[in-house]
Amino acid sequence: MPGNTFGHSFRITSWGESHGAAVGVVVDGVPAGLELSGADVQKELNRRRPGQSEVSTPRAESDTVEILSGVFEGITTGTPVSMLVRNRNADPGAYDYIRNIPRPGHADLFYTEKYGVRDHRGGGRSSGRETIGRVAGGAIAKKLLMGFGIEVFAHVIELGGVKAGPVTFGDIRSNVERTAVRCADPEAAERMLRQVRLAREEGDSIGGIVEVIATGVPAGIGEPVFGKLDADIAGALMSIGAVKGVEIGAGFECAHMKGSQMNDAFVLEDGQIVPESNNAGGITGGLSTGLPIICRAAVKPTPSISKPQRSVDMAAMEEVDIEIHGRHDPAIPPRMVPVAEAMLALVLADHMIRSGRINPDHIRK
Amino acid sequence: MPGNTFGHSFRITSWGESHGAAVGVVVDGVPAGLELSGADVQKELNRRRPGQSEVSTPRAESDTVEILSGVFEGITTGTPVSMLVRNRNADPGAYDYIRNIPRPGHADLFYTEKYGVRDHRGGGRSSGRETIGRVAGGAIAKKLLMGFGIEVFAHVIELGGVKAGPVTFGDIRSNVERTAVRCADPEAAERMLRQVRLAREEGDSIGGIVEVIATGVPAGIGEPVFGKLDADIAGALMSIGAVKGVEIGAGFECAHMKGSQMNDAFVLEDGQIVPESNNAGGITGGLSTGLPIICRAAVKPTPSISKPQRSVDMAAMEEVDIEIHGRHDPAIPPRMVPVAEAMLALVLADHMIRSGRINPDHIRK
Amino acid sequence: MPGNTFGHSFRITSWGESHGAAVGVVVDGVPAGLELSGADVQKELNRRRPGQSEVSTPRAESDTVEILSGVFEGITTGTPVSMLVRNRNADPGAYDYIRNIPRPGHADLFYTEKYGVRDHRGGGRSSGRETIGRVAGGAIAKKLLMGFGIEVFAHVIELGGVKAGPVTFGDIRSNVERTAVRCADPEAAERMLRQVRLAREEGDSIGGIVEVIATGVPAGIGEPVFGKLDADIAGALMSIGAVKGVEIGAGFECAHMKGSQMNDAFVLEDGQIVPESNNAGGITGGLSTGLPIICRAAVKPTPSISKPQRSVDMAAMEEVDIEIHGRHDPAIPPRMVPVAEAMLALVLADHMIRSGRINPDHIRK
Amino acid sequence: MPGNTFGHSFRITSWGESHGAAVGVVVDGVPAGLELSGADVQKELNRRRPGQSEVSTPRAESDTVEILSGVFEGITTGTPVSMLVRNRNADPGAYDYIRNIPRPGHADLFYTEKYGVRDHRGGGRSSGRETIGRVAGGAIAKKLLMGFGIEVFAHVIELGGVKAGPVTFGDIRSNVERTAVRCADPEAAERMLRQVRLAREEGDSIGGIVEVIATGVPAGIGEPVFGKLDADIAGALMSIGAVKGVEIGAGFECAHMKGSQMNDAFVLEDGQIVPESNNAGGITGGLSTGLPIICRAAVKPTPSISKPQRSVDMAAMEEVDIEIHGRHDPAIPPRMVPVAEAMLALVLADHMIRSGRINPDHIRK
Predict the structure, then answer these.
(1) Between residues 7 and 46 of chain B, which touch chain D (CB distance below 8 Å)?
(2) Distinct helix (H) and strand (E) counts, chain B
(3) In terms of CB atoms within 10 Å, which end of chain A has fewer, N or C?
(4) How far is D357 from chain C (nearest CA, A)?
(5) Whole-model pTM?
(6) For C176-220, how does the pLDDT look when each residue is reduced to its tens digit (9 = 90+)?
(7) Are residues C89 and C61 in contact, defined by beta-carbon separation less than 8 angstroms?
(8) Which chain A residues are closer than 8 Å to D361 by Cβ?
(9) CB-based contact (8 Å) between C220 and chain A?
(10) CA B226/CA B231 separation, integer angstroms
(11) Is B205 in contact with A258 (Cβ distance < 8 A)?
(12) Which stretches of chain A score pLDDT less than 70?
């Protein structure tokens, strides 16, 4: 069973290669009645787009989205929404030198092991360009969720060893788009940027951590025991290229805690029973608790670096050195922010419908 | 869409509550031709069974499995394998006091939010007893994989703040079942055990980290872009109760690394192109690399503690203190070892079939 | 991907062989809040049970169901409902003579082609005994639907060449269980019964047609374009052993009709727009129309006959004659009535939830 | 759960409305290594295309397909194949008169019941134009199957009451594209054509029966008990608009047969055990028998007719008469031939992979 479809009741099918004709996505399960325009999607794609700042690849792509179906007179109709982004600045010849030489840290060799053939241009399907489908689908999920009081946002909390200081949700909302590194702590952002520059000068790259948050999720969302909300979020975030770890709430820190510290006690608040603290990160037993969902993804350093690395020429079957001078970001986390938001939004839209909180046929039903 | 089925080509459907008549699992997609007996499954269930040592609950359950279908004359037939374990030592009356009082750190309140009703006895479906289905299904996956040279094993690498020292795969295989805490480093195991005792004396509990490993997985397994092997593993491990974080290979450590450190260079070995190091943890771009798969799950401290905690009586709608004196483990990681192995084995069996490495109809085809 | 799970939001997983330890089913997606007892399920199983009359096999099975999970204090909890029926009157030795000789009209040879091995006793998994899981799951679906005003019932409209005369829904409800052949036209039922007796005397068997009806289905249920309601019904009915054709409404008759005859015009009735006629059989464009759903399944004659038939001994690889003297029904349609009802009910429960008409978490939400 | 995806291991996701920007399909699960060009797909689309003869709508569409992904240097790469057909001859204004008046026999009213809104132009998503996605996806399935010796073809065997005489597979292959009605019996084709003309003159339409055949399918394909090959075929064919009945092999005729007539005896042929006759239509017990798969779909008369019909104006809520003068075919079966072939090919490609007969990663593995 192939793997290019994500979700059940709200579901995206993604397609496209980095230097093929186009990339795109089909979103099935969008309830009818949602106002939707290309601008809603373009706004998110622009955040993901390359060439926005010194932290991202200089590949010049406008990434203009075209909505091909599922919207009539500005409103979704319940039928699939198909979206397309043409690849404009493709430069396939630039990749001839890696046709036979798998790049360390990339999937090149393993695509060849699996499929026998591969589109080597810019990594083909394994390129970060694949995330356009995620972001476009996620844009619809975000708009849908917004109508039900759910907001999803992300920020970079660590980059190249620099950790952001504590920030409020308000800080994140107002600051994150102000810096090239998408960190809500302006002072840390400055230091992160220096790390990015340093890495580029060294022909190297750096890793970091992205935190993704959802507010307004009602309690009781999720499907025990395998379709738990945190299980689906973990799978969603780990499916993003370069992510090597995922945690929710206290996360790995919980390994050092005692039950009496970790447990979120229950209190009465305005006649509602709510957890007093949020070590759970908004999810317990696989179900949302009503508090904000807080999760983090560890992102490895960009595998494409210009420093010489050892590899093997698959045609000649001999060891070689490779320097990667293509267009690439020295750090992935800043551009991963909209992608991580998209994945969390997709999971939440799916589960809101699956648990009957959003009607699958029409948002007003 | 409900959530009690896991996997695609090799698929389990789990059912059962802690104090209902029984718990069990249906395994669909087991290829025909596999020798299978109750003993194969019992062996794994015995490792998960309570009452084995001072680190686990004293609930006395033999957890005897009965295979009800799918096996004929000692061989699987390709039809579903249904397995059943009766609940014997159920003591439902012992849970009357939590009928209306949700336990902090447990799913009680959120099951009520979702379903309106809940079986409160021992946590009902959200009990750790649910993992019997996982372990029974995983036992078949493990046996199937073993025939294709794949071995799955796990160990506790951190408990109550005590970290295990470095161990070899050989150490893990030979040592892990020798200690009650399932740590392969005997010296650390001793200190971990002291932490367990201390926690019990304090009426508290401790968390830890379980590492799961698979050797012998061929390169090229996984389904980009959403069915990536690491995405499925992350979802699988996060679906286990009490897990709050998952990482693969270098995991969260990669956030502090540079590309030149993180990337696994390629070298020629016996005419094969292989990664020289394994920071990737055996998976790159969502595909197996041919090196051992190494992943870790962060496990929170057992939420059931006898120290008083604040909660709310849902009937009286007033805040109360609750002390939990039921039967429970002061630390979950040791008993999670066979569960984590089961989940990794289930993912691998599924993907081995999905990618055509194991024939879905008969293992010898 | 294996095939023992049916449905999406309301979903059954069936397991068990004719002469294994038991047969059963796991029903996932039953909303919480439904009153459910073993008697609700037993009632339907008793209608399917063998040995009830001269038209069915004399195999003596009480087919007593045990509900193992998902129900607490008489109410469903939203967790999977697992049900089990032990095989009591198994007589495996009676099948030794067909271990190597595939029975014409049965799946024996093709199970061997697919799986390499097979449980030959009574057809193993391909036995009609497999339908116990369908009927048990369908019993829950029927009870769920009943609470939303939907009723499902079936009757035999043709058997051994005898066609039933026109009957009303009222006739079906009151008459169908009064005759051994489950035909609502008493006079035709008498003639059908004579055909059954004649066939048995000749050592032969007869086919027929079962009609299944659902009343009370609201308009707009179904999921274009592949999850159309009629597509799912066709797949559901065709998945029952011995069914060779399925039609909805005018069915094959429509091939001879003109558009002006076939189209159901729209009229106003009590302020509602409704079709004036029901040639569509309650489904147009894959969506329910609000009128009764009417579908029919063509059922082949029982393949097990005592007349000599040609087959091949797979061990000796030589042609042989085979006479089948096991316990079997001379006509399948009467006992298929509850099975066909179950399958239609399963499809409708699934689609009622999928389209948001029944809340997936709790029936009263 | 929405319904625009079909298949499991070989899977299409279809999208698009009749008068939107485009229609298309994403095909996931195409094994790598298949030679594929736009011409392979265009060939099949041209057979489905309108405006080819007097039996089809005069809407002028070239239906030119663009392959956007999944093919590199003329070979499939294992990644999703996305295909797009722009709508050129859309004439949306021509449908203003049906914005509020549901057409009898069409899904208009029921889309409104389900989704609240609908794209009324030419039926929107419920238009026959949706089948472009099926045919494009089916073209890849057919090419894939052809490499494994499986051929799929269809013909019209009844139209407007005229039945074709007996024809051989050879007749079908050579004759079916020679007549506008796609009937392999030239004499009957002539009479069918007269029925088409007569219907058009009367402002009416006629129904018919399409037979679909697959040769070369190996024995043992299919997934008991719900994923039976015939169950999936029945669902696939019934999902095509206008189909009201499906049968396999003897089909509804089996209702009048005896077991001794219906059963296909087994004989030895070249050392293989094979059925001597093919009343089963190539499928028994849900598994392929090795003989040709033969199935038939009953197709209702085109619902769009120019004769006045009764309907209701949904805005004014008053009964009105409606005459449909848009572009439409007086008979659907001839153009359904490539669509039915596509659906059968999709089911077979899916099951060939699911049962391990075609490797999911690469066709040569």
Answers:
(1) 8-9
(2) 8, 18
(3) C
(4) 10
(5) 0.98
(6) 999 999 999 999 999 999 999 999 999 999 999 999 999 999 999
(7) yes
(8) 114-116
(9) yes
(10) 7
(11) yes
(12) 57-59, 90, 92, 326-327
Partners of C72 in the β-ladder? C75
Task: Please check the confidence at residue C83 and state whether its pLDDT lies above 90.
Answer: yes
CA-based nearest distance D73→chain C, Å: 31
Question: Cβ D114–C3 below 8 Å, yes or no?
Answer: no
Average pLDDT, chain C: 95
**B360 closest CB neighbour out of D79, D355, D361:** D355
CA distance D234 to chain A (A): 22
Cβ neighbours of C156 in D, within 8 Å: none
Q: Are D102 and C280 in contact (CB under 8 A)?
A: no
Q: Is the pLDDT of residue C69 over 80?
A: yes
Contact D82/A17, CB-based, under 8 Å? no
Shortest Cα–Cα distance, C360 to chain A (Å): 6
Helix residue ranges, H only, chain C? 38-48, 108-115, 131-146, 169-175, 186-201, 229-238, 259-262, 333-354
Per the CB < 8 Å rule, is D264 touching C9?
no
Report chain B (365 residues): mean pLDDT per 10 consecutive residues: 97 97 98 98 94 69 94 98 91 84 97 95 94 98 98 98 98 95 97 96 96 98 98 98 98 97 97 97 98 98 96 96 83 97 98 98 95
CB-closest option in B14, B84, B362 to C115: B362
Residue with tokens 């339907």: C44
Burial (Cβ within 10 Å: 0-12, 13-18, ≥19) of residue D316:
exposed
Q: Within 13 Å, how many C-alpha atoms sit on residue D210's CB side?
A: 32
For C275, the token pair is 């079709």
Residues of chain C found within 8 Å of residue D111, distances taken between Cβ atoms:
220, 224, 285, 287
Strand order in the sheet with C81-86: C5-6, C11-16, C22-28, C81-86, C65-67
Scan residues 182-201 of A and list those with Cβ closer than 8 Å to C.
none
Superfamily name and number for A5-364: Chorismate synthase AroC (3.60.150.10)
- Measured CA to CA, the distance from residue A177 to residue A179 in angstroms comes to 6
pLDDT band at C58; cut points 50, 70, 90 = low
Please spell the DSSP secondary structure of A102-165, one letter per residue: PPTTSSHHHHHHHHS----GGGGGGSGGGHHHHHHHHHHHHHHHHTTT-EEEEEEEEETTEEPP
How is D176-229 classified by DSSP, letter by letter? GGGSTT--SSHHHHHHHHHHHHHHHHTT--B-EEEEEEEE-PPTT-SBTBTB-H
CA B2 to chain C, closest CA, distance in angstroms equals 5
Cβ proximity of A329 and A57 under 8 Å: yes
Taking CA–CA distances from D364, the nearest residue in chain B reads: B356
Q: What is the ipTM of this complex?
A: 0.97
Asked whether D244 and C257 are in contact (CB, 8 A), the reply is no
